[in-house]
Design brief:
single chain, 302 residues, alpha+beta, Heat Shock Protein 90, 2 domains, five-stranded mixed sheet, two-stranded antiparallel ribbon, 9 strands
Length: 302
C-alpha cells in the first residue's frame, strides 16, 4: 500500500505467462491460469513530474486491475480447458494439431496476465529463480515468432556456455516479448530481420548503461541479451524520451512498455543500453548480473 500524502506514479503492467517446459497439464489449469499484473510504484523524485491527468489515469488503471483479473481468470480457464480437450481428441497425424497447440500456448501465455494481477491484489511479487537465458529463449521461440509482423524473420545468435541469471520468468518473458514486438513494428522491408543475441560482458561501472534509479551498474560480469532490428531506427530526440511513461510513437500506443521494462531490469540489478540511428536499425541490450550456484551443473546452461 502507498503512504498517504506522498506523491507517487503508479503503472499497471500486464505480463505474459511462462511455463518451464511449454507443456500443458489439465490438472493445473486453475492453478496456472491467472492474469498477472505488477503494479509499480515509482517515486516522483526519480521521475519526471507528470500532469495530474496522467497520474489519475494510472491510479484508475490500478483500481481496475482486481476486477479484470477475476474476469480474465474465468475466461482463460474455459479457453485453456476447452482447447486441451480439443487437442486430446485429435489424432497424432492430424494437421490441425499444430494450430491447436499454438492456440493453447498463446492462451497459457495470456494466463500470466491474470496471475500477475491477482498477485498484485494479494500483494505478492513474482518469485525470481535461476534461468538459463539461452534455454529460456529456445523454449519461447514459437511465442516470440507469433509477435513478428508482415512475414519478418527472427534469428538467434546464442553464445555458448553462459552462466544463469536470477530473475522472474514472467518478467523475463514480458521484456523479450515487448522488445521483439517493438523491433518487428520498426521493420520496413521484406528482407529486414530481428535478431536475439546473447553474450557476456565485464562491466566496470563507468559504462553508459541506463537504470531506473539513475545509479551505475555494480562492477562485475553480466549476461547480455540484445534485440537487434534492421528497421527504421530512431533519431536522438526520440531516443532521449523512449523510457518516459506515456511517451509513444505508435498511433495506438500507451507509452508504458519501455518504462516498465527499465523498472523490471533495474529491480533485477541490471540495466539497458540502446543504440539507434535513422535508417540503420536499433539495438536494445539488456544487462543482467550472472548468477552461479554450486548445486547446478554447468552443462545445463549450454
Amino acid at each position: 500500500m502507498l503512504d498517504l500524502g506522498r506523491t507517487s506514479i503508479i503503472g499497471a503492467n500486464l505480463l505474459p505467462v511462462v511455463t518451464k517446459h511449454n507443456q500443458f497439464s489439465s490438472e493445473k489449469v486453475r492453478k496456472r491460469t491467472g492474469m498477472t499484473a505488477k503494479m509499480l510504484e515509482l517515486e516522483a523524485k526519480q521521475q519526471i513530474n507528470y500532469p495530474p491527468k496522467d497520474s489519475e489515469t494510472l491510479e484508475t488503471l490500478g483500481l481496475l486491475a482486481g476486477g479484470i483479473a477475476h474476469d480474465f481468470n474465468n475466461l482463460l480457464t474455459s479457453i485453456i480447458g476447452q482447447t486441451s480437450l480439443a487437442l486430446a481428441t485429435l489424432p497424432a497425424e492430424s494437421k490441425a494439431r499444430r494450430y491447436v497447440e499454438n492456440s493453447l500456448q498463446a492462451a497459457e501465455t495470456a494466463a500470466v496476465l491474470t496471475r500477475q494481477l491477482l498477485n498484485y491484489v494479494n500483494n505478492k511479487e513474482s518469485s525470481p529463480e535461476e534461468i538459463s537465458v539461452n534455454q529460456f529463449i529456445r523454449d519461447n521461440l514459437i511465442l516470440f515468432n507469433m509477435f513478428l509482423l508482415n512475414g519478418s524473420s527472427l534469428q538467434l545468435e546464442l553464445a555458448p556456455a553462459l552462466p544463469p541469471v536470477k530473475a522472474s520468468r514472467a518478467n523475463m518473458q514480458q521484456i523479450l516479448m515487448n522488445l521483439v514486438l517493438n523491433a518487428s513494428e520498426a521493420l520496413q522491408n521484406d528482407d529486414d530481420t530481428v535478431t536475439i543475441k546473447t553474450g557476456r560482458e565485464l562491466i566496470n561501472g563507468q559504462e553508459d548503461i541506463l537504470t531506473a534509479n539513475g545509479r551505475p551498474l555494480s562492477p562485475g560480469e553480466y549476461i547480455t541479451i540484445q534485440i537487434i532490428d534492421t528497421g527504421r531506427g530512431m533519431d536522438e530526440a526520440t531516443l532521449a524520451k523512449i523510457f518516459q511513461p506515456f511517451f509513444t510513437t505508435k498511433r495506438h500506443g500507451r507509452g508504458l512498455g519501455l518504462s516498465t521494462i527499465l523498472e523490471i531490469v533495474t529491480r533485477d540489478n541490471g540495466g539497458i543500453h540502446v543504440q539507434s540511428k535513422p535508417g540503420q536499425g536499433t539495438t536494445f541490450t539488456i544487462y543482467l548480473p550472472k548468477f552461479f550456484s554450486s548445486q547446478l551443473h554447468w552443462s545445463q546452461f549450454h
